[in-house]
Specification:
This protein is of the alpha+beta class. The chain has 19 helices and 15 strands. About 40% of the residues lie in helices and about 10% in strands. The strands form 3 sheets. Strands 2, 4, 5, 8, 9 and 10 form a 6-stranded mixed beta sheet that branches. A 5-stranded mixed beta sheet has the order 12-11-15-14-13. A 4-stranded antiparallel beta sheet has the order 1-3-7-6, with no helix packed on it.
Length: about 600
């Protein structure tokens, strides 16, 4: 009809006009029309047999979530460069059908983090489940993706099961681990670094990252994400992800947490109540399998940050596990309260630094006020004792910084717990202060998002080691803000971070192994490098781009003028961009779980 209207202006007003009118009437008689809607005026869907030349090559200019989009969600792809139109193509039984042909009318936006001039392609109107790709003449096609419900369930389970693959001290049997099965490892007692004549049973727990060290603070942060996720979304977790404890009547996320919590309890000094900072060899091992690592493992000294974070998660776990395993819940709470006494007895204990001769991960932190405040919140919420609440009321402004969800600053975990505890336990002043700070920060993030081409919630200066953890922690933050005060924009920002992690970024890189067409294949992870298996364990989250180029692989492979959002390489030797850790998986698990709920 639009084409006919244009013809009217170009033909004569006599005989030709009559002929066209006759033809138009005949066409209308054969094919009824409807009044055009606003979307019809922008988008023209071609007839099934209409010939449309589609792109056949992925050129890396159209960035999508390579896992996909839920049916009712906003569906946005990012296009680099200026083009006229795009097509959404459905793939079914090797047949391709254009289901949307749309002009590109979004405004261009320069993305500072990547140096890209981008346009946003919106295909939210398409809700039919299936497999699709996008085609843009001259820009190529996108990687394929799904539209459908429950499309993040497999991702959620893989993110959780990665923790099982990181288990230390037991055999990973083929029935649970598949091709990645291996013998037990690191079953010798830990040796006290300060007195080599003293040993402790420290078997168990998770290998922290790509090495075989076990570190109390990051293990506690991982557990906090997992326990928070279960406490907030308990119905989202199953008892059948195929770990040794599956089908025992306890959700597998709690079974996996218990395995790590048991190790944390073993890291407690029985006499003083303090928790040792880490258990590791003095130097990082080479790329060998865990059971081939025969080097002695040493307990580094007790630290206030290890003690505070251990107390916090043990107290939280006791609250959650009381309905499933009362005996373990009692052990956890007893260890937590004993650890709290160490914190009270050592108010000025110095932060941890690596002892002389030890070069494994330091996780150094000179300030333990956040760990102490977090521990007090969890103990109060679990026990109801005034002594813990009194501490919180005196220290919440300094200790419970709402944005702190990492291993250095983790007061945010305490803030979340306080905001969601029973209302009759809350102090109004503390609650109002924390909530106002939370929403203030959420609105700051929301304002920044308006200027970000890839809808990622970090600035160019924030692409440091483990930038993907920062991205996913921002997603957790926005989800919590949404739960505090319902705001669809907060929720959308959180979902945008998941889109980023799964390929909607300047590199079209899915940073999760086993998911997406361009997924990580060569993580900095010793078992993956030594097991002679082509594919790494699925569900690993890589650290992501870093502006500081902190390893030689990145320095030698990526030009110095590369924007921070593209300073990443999928190479085994790049520990600063491609290592994996439990505490990069855990925030991603939290976010994926939220979007797996009914």
């Amino acid at each position: 009809m639009i084409r006919l209207k244009k013809m009217y202006r170009l033909v004569s007003l006599v005989l030709v006009l009559l002929l066209i009118f006759t033809a138009c009437k005949a066409s209308v008689d054969q094919e009824p029309t409807k009044d055009p809607s606003p979307s019809d005026q922008v988008n023209e869907s071609p007839r099934p047999n209409e010939s449309l030349e589609l792109e056949t090559e992925v050129k890396g200019l159209i960035h999508v979530n390579q896992v996909g989009y839920r049916t009712e969600d906003e569906k946005i792809a990012i296009l680099v460069g200026e083009y006229d139109s795009f097509q959404l193509v459905a793939i079914e039984d090797e047949k391709e059908t254009v289901v949307l042909n749309s002009k590109i009318e979004s405004s261009p936006l320069f993305d500072v983090s990547t140096g890209d001039l981008v346009y946003k392609l919106d295909f939210s109107q398409v809700t039919e489940p299936g497999q699709y790709y996008l085609s843009v003449a001259g820009a190529g096609r996108s990687y394929p993706f799904q539209i459908g419900d429950n499309i993040y369930n497999d991702l959620k389970d893989a993110l959780l099961k990665f923790m099982y693959y990181q288990r230390c001290g037991i055999e990973l049997k083929e029935e649970h681990a598949g091709q990645w099965h291996r013998p037990e490892c690191h079953t010798e007692p830990g040796i006290l670094l300060e007195d080599n004549n003293v040993t402790m049973d420290t078997v168990g727990g998770w290998h922290d990252a790509g090495d075989f060290g076990k570190y109390t603070v990051p293990a506690a942060v991982t557990l906090a994400d997992m326990l928070n996720s279960y406490e907030m979304f308990p119905t989202a977790y199953s008892d059948n992800i195929n770990i040794p404890e599956s089908n025992n009547g306890i959700p597998d996320i709690l079974d996996e947490s218990i395995y790590a919590l048991d190790w944390i309890i073993r890291m407690q000094d029985e006499k003083s109540g303090g928790f040792y900072h880490k258990l590791s060899t003095n130097n990082f091992p080479g790329f060998i399998m865990p059971h081939r690592d025969s080097s002695k493992q040493y307990l580094s000294p007790i630290s206030p940050t290890a003690t505070g974070s251990a107390v916090a998660v043990l107290a939280q776990a006791s609250r959650i596990l009381s309905d499933y395993d009362s005996e373990f819940a009692g052990r956890a709470l007893a260890a937590a309260e004993k650890g709290w006494q160490w914190l009270i007895d050592n108010p000025d204990a110095s932060g941890f630094t690596n002892p002389k001769g030890v070069s494994t991960g330091e996780y150094g932190d000179a300030n333990s006020s956040d760990e102490r405040a977090w521990a007090a919140v969890e103990l109060y919420r679990t026990t109801g004792k005034d002594q813990y609440h009194d501490y919180v009321k005196k220290n919440y402004k300094g200790g419970l910084k709402v944005a702190g969800l990492g291993w250095i600053d983790n007061g945010g975990f305490g803030a979340i717990s306080y905001l969601f505890m029973d209302q009759d336990m809350q102090d109004t002043d503390v609650y109002d202060y924390l909530k106002s700070k939370y929403l203030e920060e959420a609105d700051r993030i929301k304002k920044y998002m308006a200027y970000n081409g890839y809808n990622v919630a970090i600035r160019p200066t924030e692409y440091y080691w483990g930038s993907n953890m920062h991205v996913m922690n921002r997603a957790i933050f926005m989800l919590v803000a949404h739960l505090l005060e319902e705001n669809p924009e907060y929720e959308q920002i959180a979902l945008d971070q998941l889109h980023y992690l799964l390929g909607r970024n300047g590199l079209s890189q899915s940073y999760v192994s086993g998911f997406g067409s361009k997924q990580i294949k060569n993580p900095h992870h010793r078992p993956s490098g030594a097991d002679n298996i082509k594919e790494p364990v699925p569900g690993m989250v890589a650290g992501g781009p870093t502006k500081d180029r902190e390893d030689n692989v990145v320095k030698n492979s990526i030009p110095e003028d590369t924007p921070p959002g593209k300073a990443y390489i999928d190479a085994e030797g790049s520990y600063s961009t491609n290592e994996v850790t439990t505490y990069w998986n855990s925030p991603t698990l939290f976010v994926a779980t939220y979007f797996c709920q009914e």
